[in-house]
Design goal:
35% helix; alpha/beta; 462 residues; 17% strand; globular; two-stranded antiparallel sheet; Alkaline Phosphatase, subunit A
Length: 462
């Protein structure tokens, strides 16, 4: 999502990752997978969800009295994420790997490093008569969802990406809106919504607590969205407007008995980690896992289903240790750091007293009293220095609360560690152990009977 930080990983972070990653390697894949075919395929991608994000998410949901859905998966493994040439990946290259089965350079969608076009498993499935769905908490023309339909585009070519989307044949679009503004269609400027209408899409809006259902093709949009077409952070929306609802809407709209493949991205995990916002991050992980639960519900009633959950890369170089207040202190955070900075910046004056009052209201951090939420003298000095700087004050609030929860972001970019992969259902044993992210596409194609499907390889990117 953001150009990765290619610096050397912090030694302590890297050492901790080795220990954590070892726990994800699982056992015993079957000796043969002959005749294993799935009719219902879910691929859940936690953007930026590395091993430590999973550990922090696990601690958070247990604090809330829930069980981590990922712990119920029978197959647990790891996925290697490097881009072509072996560097730290961005979301575009990682999406192309998982969607198309080829490594590519950072920033590229739907093409190999030489610029030759490659079809995604979603496009191939649509061509073969499958129903298809792409859902994300980010804008639907953002890198990860776009990796499943864009044709040789750079990740910031939003207008061209949306033109590819309109011709992709994807049946269900859900979650975010679009980064693209007005685009040309046959020489005439049009909004993305109008372009989709011209291509036969129905447009429905996700209302609070409802599950929209309509005739395909269909775009279910959020009632409100943040910058870049993304959904607001989970910390700022209700349970009834989460990622789970969009998955439920897709399942309700796909006719009974149809084969389908559904791609679901929890994209705001990544943006929270880029921002070093631990309180927003754990809530995004929980929201994403809620959507994953819907895949497992489907698996229970439809045995010919496979559910795969993984990340595209790790974001933030996250460490999770024992903090003075534990993960529970994150319940004191009321808004994301980004929203805090925006609202605080709208104030006039912004005195030191304003800064302390705002931090207490939004993060629970106090100047007086006792306990874990009491600001130290050095922290109070930092607040005074940041009182007139909204972005700096919001970042300080997140960092101070993170420290009390035991969370530390070592970088604002991506890292190259292997990410967890979880699988259940038909053919899930093929994902055991450590696999390359390109194998997500190749294994799913085999399970869908698409291994020999025709591709556009040979055509060159525009």
């Amino acid at each position: 999502m953001v150009t990765p930080n290619n610096g050397k990983a912090n030694g302590r972070f890297a050492a901790g990752i080795v220990v954590l990653c070892a726990a994800f390697i699982l056992v015993s894949a079957p000796s043969t997978w002959a005749a294993e075919l799935a009719r219902h395929v879910f691929l859940f991608i936690g953007d930026g969800q590395g091993p430590v994000q999973v550990e922090a998410g696990r601690a958070w949901v247990r604090f809330l009295g829930e069980e981590p859905v990922v712990d119920s998966f029978p197959v647990k493994g790891l996925s290697r994420t490097e881009c072509a040439g072996g560097g730290v990946t961005d979301s575009a290259a990682a999406a192309t790997a998982m969607a198309c089965g080829v490594k590519t350079v950072n920033g590229m969608l739907g093409a190999d490093p030489a610029g030759k076009l490659v079809d995604s498993l979603v496009v191939q499935a649509s061509r073969a008569g499958w129903k298809t769905a792409v859902i994300s908490t980010m804008g639907l023309d953002h890198a990860t969802p776009a990796g499943f339909y864009a044709k040789g585009r750079r990740r910031n070519e939003y207008a061209a990406i949306c033109a590819d989307l309109a011709e992709s044949g994807i049946d269900f679009l859900g979650g975010g809106a679009f980064n693209a503004g007005r685009i040309k269609d046959g020489g005439v400027e049009s909004s993305v919504a109008d372009l989709l209408k011209k291509r036969g899409y129905g447009l429905l809006q996700m209302a609070e607590g409802e599950v929209p259902r309509g005739r395909l093709p269909l775009w279910v949009s959020p009632a409100k969205h943040a910058d870049g077409g993304s959904l607001p952070y989970a910390i700022e929306r209700s349970e009834g407007a989460g990622l789970r609802r969009f998955v439920q809407s897709a399942l309700a709209s796909i006719p009974e008995g149809e084969r389908f493949v559904m791609i679901v991205e929890g994209g705001r995990i990544d943006t929270a980690c880029h921002a070093g916002d631990g309180g927003a991050m754990v809530r995004e992980v929980r929201d994403f896992w809620g959507a994953v639960e819907e895949g497992l519900v489907c698996l229970k009633s439809r045995p010919d289903t496979v559910v795969v959950v993984t990340g595209d890369h790790e974001t933030g170089g996250l460490e999770f240790t024992r903090g003075a207040g534990g993960i529970a202190v994150l319940q004191s955070q009321r808004v994301s750091g980004a929203s805090f900075s925006k609202s605080y910046g709208a104030r006039t004056g912004r005195t030191e007293e304003d800064a302390f009052a705002a931090l207490e209201a939004s993060f629970g951090l106090k100047r007086s009293g006792d306990g874990a939420m009491l600001l130290s003298e050095s922290e109070q000095d930092e607040v005074r220095k940041s009182a007139s700087l909204p972005a700096q004050l919001g970042g300080a609030g997140c960092r101070m609360l993170n420290a009390r929860a035991g969370l530390l972001f070592r970088t604002g970019g991506h890292t190259g560690v292997d990410v967890p992969l979880f699988a259940a259902g038909t053919g899930s044993g093929r994902f055991a152990g450590t696999t390359d992210n390109t194998q997500v596409a190749s294994i799913l194609r085999e399970l869908m009977g698409l291994a020999g499907a025709a591709s556009q390889a040979g055509a060159e990117a525009p």
